[in-house]
Amino acid sequence: QVQLVESGGGLVQAGASLRLSCAASGRTFSRYSMGWFRQAPGKEREFVAAISWIGGNTYYADSVKGRFTISRDNAKNTVYLQMNSLKPEDTAVYYCAASTGIVKLTTSVQYDYWGQGTQVTVSS
């Protein structure tokens, strides 16, 4: 079992930055690939970024490439999402998820555990 708790969301203006954190319980965090997804009101949950537990390969949605960076600190059982140059369309609830998979990691069905989410609101 893995429990995930997100933090770091908030209300910011367009162009600002935020760093989301996701703290994981359990002693096998380093054996899970981690992902971030988001869901805006009235829309389906969508993939944002992922980092594999083997090799640290990273994957990004086209809409966030060059602006968001995913990273992990296995010693702290934490994965981060650095979000720069935020836009109003980035407004959503952001979810952290854990997967035993190691490739692509861009679909929600690949993930076994989910956090409760943290709200990010970007004003124009």
Name some characteristics of this structure:
124 residues; mainly beta; seven-stranded mixed β-sheet; four-stranded antiparallel β-sheet; 0% helix; globular
Task: Summarize the structure in words.
This protein has about 120 residues and is an all-beta fold. It is about 0% helix and about 50% strand. The chain has strands at about 5, 10-15, 20-25, 35-40, 45-50, 60, 70-75, 80-85, 90-100, 115, 120-124. The strands form 2 sheets. Strands 2, 4, 5, 6, 9, 10 and 11 form a 7-stranded mixed sheet that branches. A 4-stranded antiparallel sheet has the order 1-3-8-7, with no helix packed on it. It is globular and about 40 Å long.
- Proportion of strand residues: over 45%
Approximately how much helix is present in the residues? under 10%
Element string (H = helix, E = strand): EEEEEEEEEEE
Q: Span from first to last CA?
A: 40 Å
Mean pLDDT: 95
**Number of DSSP-assigned strands:** 11
Structural class: mainly beta
How much is the radius of gyration in Å? 13 Å
Count of helix runs: 0
Described by strand count, sense and barrel closure, the largest sheet is: 7 strands, mixed
Low-confidence stretches: none
Write the topology of this structure.
Elements: E1 4-7, E2 10-13, E3 18-24, E4 33-39, E5 46-51, E6 58-60, E7 68-73, E8 78-83, E9 92-99, E10 113-114, E11 118-123
Parallel strand pairs: 2-11
Antiparallel strand pairs: 1-3, 3-8, 4-5, 4-9, 5-6, 7-8, 9-10, 9-11
